[in-house]
Design a protein that fits this description.
With about 120 residues, the protein is of the alpha+beta class. The chain has two domains: about 30 residues; about 80 residues, Histidine-containing Protein, Chain: A (2-Layer Sandwich), CATH 3.30.1340. About 50% of the residues lie in helices and about 20% in strands. It contains four helices and three strands, in the order H-H-H-E-E-H-E. A hairpin with a 2-residue loop joins strand 1 and strand 2. The longest helix is centred in the middle third of the chain and has 24 residues.
C-alpha cells in the first residue's frame, strides 16, 4: 500500500511541476507576442507616441474638413501629417479643387503648413 502511494506521488510530481513551470509563459505562448514587460522606457518614447497621436488627429481633422467642404468632394485626396505639416496627395478634377483643398487644410487650427501635392486629372 505504501509502495503504491509512493509510486502515485512520484508519478504526479513531474506533471505538477511541469504545469506550474509553464504558467509564467502561458500568456506569451497564447498570443504569440514577445514579452516586453521588463523593457525600460526610453526618455523620448512618450513624446514620440504623443506626436504620432497628434499627427493622426490632425490628418483626421483635415479629412473631415475636406469631406464637409460644400463645393467639392475630395474623394481622391490622401492626407498625411507630421509635426503640424499636412501633405495632400492624390487626384482632383480641376485647379480650383486643388487650390480649395489646400485652403481647407490650412484653416485647421493645428496645421502649421500645407504641402499641396495634388495632381489635376487630364
Amino acid at each position: 500500500m505504501q509502495l503504491l502511494t509512493l509510486i502515485t506521488c512520484l508519478s504526479a510530481l513531474p506533471l505538477i511541476v511541469g504545469l506550474m513551470g509553464c504558467a509564467s509563459d502561458r500568456r506569451n505562448q497564447s498570443t504569440g507576442q514577445p514579452n516586453y514587460d521588463n523593457r525600460v522606457a526610453e526618455p523620448g518614447d512618450n513624446q514620440i507616441t504623443d506626436q504620432r497621436v497628434e499627427d493622426s488627429r490632425t490628418a483626421e481633422r483635415v479629412r473631415e474638413a475636406l469631406a464637409a467642404a460644400p463645393q467639392y468632394k475630395f474623394d481622391g485626396v490622401q492626407v498625411a501629417a507630421s509635426n503640424g505639416v499636412v501633405q495632400l496627395r492624390g487626384l482632383v478634377n480641376t485647379g480650383a479643387q486643388r487650390t480649395r483643398a489646400g485652403e481647407v487644410a490650412d484653416k485647421i487650427v493645428v496645421v502649421k503648413s500645407v504641402e499641396n501635392n495634388l495632381t489635376i486629372r487630364d
